[in-house]
Design a protein that fits this description.
Helices cover 40% and strands 16% of the residues. The chain has helices at 18-37, 40-43, 49-52, 57-65, 76-97, 135-144, 148-163, 194-207, and strands at 102-110, 113-121, 126-133, 170-177, 186-190. The protein has a five-stranded mixed β-sheet with strand order 1-2-3-4-5.
Length: 248
């Protein structure tokens, strides 16, 4: 009686040659970049609550003008953030089906500025916005507080809900470190401020119709992530050189 011998499982040393693997990775790098760049969220031009607190007037003026982006950064971090939001929303909607008093990913509008908030807790009056980050960045936020842009975003949502007759008692940014666990979640709390929300919309109104070249820029170390950043730009109505050079 003879017995057959099963082949061993393939090991890492049996991988196809490096040239083929590199070509395959390059193909899918391109396809994924194109697919993600054509997603509705990626193509969004309208100004919303998440934009209203951005410190750079010129960047907002580009959006108002419908200027086409010229700088396309790596989409992985944004994709991970979107995925976390999607999975969290699915989980919380299951809790709603079981009787939880939550409003999940609903749209609200304040003075024609519309956006979708993450969660409103009807039992506590808390309005929640998830922010994905890293544990290293979270350490900085614990020390210095969150970016003002995040706070403005929440206050615009709260002002919109107030116009609908919804009582919002507290605002919370809950930071989710994607390199950590649920035990690493950190919440930062503030309160509604409808006057500050109004000033943010006033600023957007002032930028409406303004040529980007007429709007003031706020160069910073994150300019390289701006969709309108072009280090050699000489036409401020189309793109911005950021802090790299002066335009004559």
């Amino acid at each position: 009686m003879t017995t057959s011998r099963l082949s061993p499982l393939p090991g890492a040393h049996e991988s196809v040659d490096d040239a083929q693997a590199a070509a395959l990775a390059a193909r899918w790098r391109t396809l994924l970049a194109l697919g993600l760049a054509t997603a509705p969220r990626s193509r969004q031009q309208a100004l919303g609550p998440s934009d209203a607190g951005h410190p750079c007037d010129r960047r907002l003026a580009y959006q108002w003008a419908g200027t086409l982006p010229v700088n396309f950064g790596d989409p992985i971090k944004a994709t991970v953030g979107n995925g976390v939001h999607h999975v969290f929303a699915e989980g919380l909607r299951r809790l709603v089906e079981l009787g939880a008093h939550l409003s999940v990913e609903a749209k609200t509008t304040f003075r024609n500025v519309s956006g979708t908030y993450d969660v409103y807790d009807q039992e506590t009056g808390d309005l929640i916005d998830w922010k994905t980050t890293t544990k290293a960045r979270l350490t900085k936020y614990r020390k210095d507080g969150p970016p003002g842009q995040y706070v403005t975003q929440l206050r615009l949502y709260a002002a919109g809900l107030a116009n609908e007759g919804v009582t919002v008692k507290r605002l919370a940014l809950i930071f989710v470190p994607t390199d950590g666990t649920l035990n690493d979640l950190w919440a930062w709390i503030t309160f509604p401020d409808h006057e500050q929300a109004g000033r943010a919309v006033d600023r957007l109104d002032q930028l409406a119709g303004m040529r980007p070249s007429e709007a003031s820029a706020q160069p910073e170390r994150y300019c390289g992530y701006c969709p309108y950043y072009s280090p050699n730009s000489t036409d401020l109505d189309q793109s911005c050189p950021g802090p790299n050079q002066k335009v004559a």
